[in-house]
Amino acid sequence: MKNSSLKFYDYHIWANNKVFAHLQTLPQNVTTEEVTSVFASIKDTLVHMYVVDHGWLSTILRDESSDIDEMKERVIVLAESAQKQDITGLQKLYDDLYLEFRQAFNEINDFDQIESIFFGQLDCSYHDMITHIVNHGTYHRGNITAMLRQLGFTGCNTDYGAFLFEQQK
User: Fold this and answer.
1) I need a labelling partner for 6 at 20 to 30 A (CA). Which of 66, 104, 126, 150 fits?
2) Domain of life, per the record (predicted)?
3) d(C-alpha 143, C-alpha 145), whole Å
4) How many domains does the chain have?
């Protein structure tokens, strides 16, 4: 399952990079314009995705805090740090996070191995974790497309099929 798990994570990176590249072509204020949606802005959505991915990396690394207040503080610090970035800086944070994921994945021999996570309340495989990370990202990339449409802009194609076609070339 290792190859399909990593391929699916590659899709996540590809799709996020497509969104960042598209946003770079739009007026700079588009990412911070307030909209009525799941999050108040595109940037808030991207920050949320970054923080959640970071949390999953901590889970994969078995670096989960057992103190809920400590976890909340880590989330606040990450979100505040990401919010200070412009779109280029935010993409750099994502790129650095992708490298950390890759290093973590290199240490996993069996992606079907079941791990007990979230204070021992959930048993799932690394493949399941990656599937969740990618699906969560897909959901919020859809939010970003809807937000862009509300602001009078188009989104970009981040469908898995488009990824497969591009990889085939």
Assistant:
1) 66
2) Bacteria
3) 5
4) 1
